[in-house]
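hi! just following up on the protien thing from before. the input was this:
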Amino acid sequence: MRIRQGLKNHEFSDSIQPTVNIETGTTWGYESLIRWDDDGTLRSPAVFLNRFREVIKDATLYEQVVDMRRRLTDRAASNDIGFLTFDIGLENLQSLRDAG
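and the predicted 3d structure came back as:
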């Protein structure tokens, strides 16, 4: 129930970290990591991700997650970031065509 409420309250956001080739030190791209601001405590996906995947089977909440992802992807593209991955993979979303 808390995850559902957190999604409705827009408590989930993405943090971005670089993906670096440790041999050359060059940045290949970036990974988006979902985080939950749960009453002022920043929660790692390790705490909520399994349940989160179940919760987003609800069509309304699923659409919200796809929209979050689409906005982030658009911002990344507008900043010439060509490689962006997500800790919630496409296979975890219900509709690949809507995943952006």
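The first strand starts at residue 12 and ends at 20.
The radius of gyration is 14 Å.
cheers
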